[in-house]
Design brief:
Blueprint (H helix, E strand, L loop, with lengths): L23 H14 L12 H8 L3 H13 L3 E4 L3 E4 L14 E3 L6 E11 L2 H6 L8 E10 L2 E11 L15 H8 L4 E12 L2 H7 L6 E11 L4 E9 L4 E3 L5
Helix pairs in contact: 1-3, 2-3
């Protein structure tokens, strides 16, 4: 479970660092949330003592305590005076990466993402999936996903340009759903994933260190907003040798 937060990759065209990372304590709370969801810690189980857990995660005790406090506030942990911190629940709907379904084969993993490009484009099929006129100007966002610093997936995300006509890679948070909530007029409430397999396009193969057309896991996602509209359409290509798609219901 030991990990170090992933550094941002360079922009593919400018060489500049650009992805805005979540605060470290949020990254740690998200990692622990996923470790609990993956079953590494069971309900009622005590977490390692703070000094040991902070060492495992490579963070200061103060950062760890802030992460534990967030999870306690979210209802996932219970801190008992003089005894330690115990798992209280396995899932809730407050995690930043609640709808991120990829996990390492051994379970869990700290998610990070690098934004590679933001490009203005037209795509009649995507516009139709978004319920828009086929000639509507769109943003195409390409990203590389990591779990515990390992590249595991490539993403292509499509949005209506009207949300931000001047959108650029340096504006985006690594959690796009958080960016939508903080900077656009909606948040994502539910999704539909269409899962299959497909050959890797050249740009995806390059990112994941594969030969072109290598068979990868493939997800088409429709994301509905609080406005009851499909606001985002995306493709994800993932390496099944490293990660698997997980969906847990409660």
């Amino acid at each position: 479970m030991t990990t170090t937060p992933q550094k941002s990759a360079a922009d593919t065209s400018t060489g500049k660092k650009q992805t805005k990372r979540l605060p470290l304590y949020i990254q740690i709370s998200e990692l622990l949330h996923r470790e609990i969801a993956a079953g590494h810690y069971k309900i009622g189980e005590r977490l390692p003592i703070e000094a040991d857990l902070a060492t495992q995660l490579g963070v200061a005790i103060g950062t760890l305590r802030k992460a534990l406090s967030k999870l306690e506030g979210d209802g996932m942990l219970e801190r008992r005076q003089g005894s330690g911190t115990y798992v209280k629940a396995t899932l809730n709907n407050r995690a930043v990466y609640q709808l991120f379904r990829l996990e390492l084969l051994e379970g869990g993993g700290m998610p990070n993402a690098d934004t590679l490009s933001v490009t203005a484009a037209d795509n009649a099929y995507v516009a139709g999936q978004l319920g828009l006129d086929h000639s509507t100007p769109l943003w195409r966002i390409r990203r590389l996903r990591y779990l515990n610093q390992t590249p595991v997936a490539a993403e292509e995300i499509w949005l209506d340009q009207q949300h931000d006509p001047l959108l650029s890679a340096d504006k985006l948070l690594e959690s796009l759903y958080k960016h939508y909530r903080d900077h656009f007029d909606f948040w994502i409430t539910h999704i539909e994933d269409r899962i299959s397999c497909t050959g890797a396009p050249d740009w995806v193969a390059d990112l994941l260190g594969k030969e072109a057309n290598t068979m990868l896991g493939f997800v088409e996602r429709l994301s509905w907003s609080s406005n009851d509209r499909v606001e985002e359409f995306s493709y994800t290509w993932f390496d099944p040798a490293v990660v698997r798609y997980i969906s847990r219901l409660s």
